[in-house]
Amino acid sequence: MAKRTKRREGTVRRQGRRVMPALRRTAQRARAAADKVHLTVGEVIAAAFDTAGGELGEALNVMTSPQMTRALGRRIVVVG
User: Fold this and answer.
1) Three-class secondary structure of residue 56 per DSSP
2) What global pTM score does this model have?
3) What is the pLDDT along the chain (80 residues), one digit of tens a residue?
């Protein structure tokens, strides 16, 4: 992917770079921050219930939201 540019002295190789997709980029940052704090799945579920006021449907919406995915660096899928 290296390209060449012209200068007076000759050609100079420069490195091309593709931008990482936004979700992977933010997940990478969040994962670096999450490595410092270890959370269990139970703690995430308990926090979602506290935020939702004890409502099951609201807790599911909180856990599967894009904001939670970005914050944890992982995608939560609830089956059942």
Assistant:
1) helix
2) 0.51
3) 556 666 667 777 776 777 666 667 777 777 766 666 678 888 988 989 998 898 999 999 999 999 888 888 788 888 87
